[in-house]
Write a structure and sequence with these properties.
Elements lengths: L5 E7 L4 E6 L4 E10 L5 E11 L8 E11 L4 E10 L4 E7 L2
Antiparallel strand pairs: 1-2, 2-3, 3-4, 5-6, 6-7
């Protein structure tokens, strides 16, 4: 996965992820994990959970929008992620808390 330059970064702490995107259209969901060892030292790690869109695109990314909402029935957290490309294409993804 190649990033030409990181231009979009959105933190979604309630899901433990970040959304990183570049102008070239490369977007990644990045998992954020924090752990402590027996010496009370804190270690943070990040790993790529998924690439969006799942099919390769050759469009420039114009913007990333995150809409946070709760699911009434289960009180689970949900996030709608909108990717807008410079040609006017909009892709929507719904991310749910496990």
């Amino acid at each position: 996965m190649t990033f030409d330059r990181l231009t979009f970064l959105e933190w979604v702490p309630e899901l433990g992820i970040a959304i990183a995107g570049s102008f070239s259209g490369t977007v990644a969901l990045v998992g954020l994990h924090q752990s402590s060892d027996s010496n009370q030292a804190t270690k943070q790690t990040m790993h790529i959970l998924a690439h969006l869109p799942t099919d390769a695109v050759s469009k420039q990314l114009y913007g990333v929008t995150v809409y946070r909402h709760s699911l009434d029935a289960e009180q689970a957290k949900a996030v709608t992620l909108l990717l807008t490309f410079i040609d006017g294409t909009v892709m929507a993804y719904e991310l749910l808390q496990d």
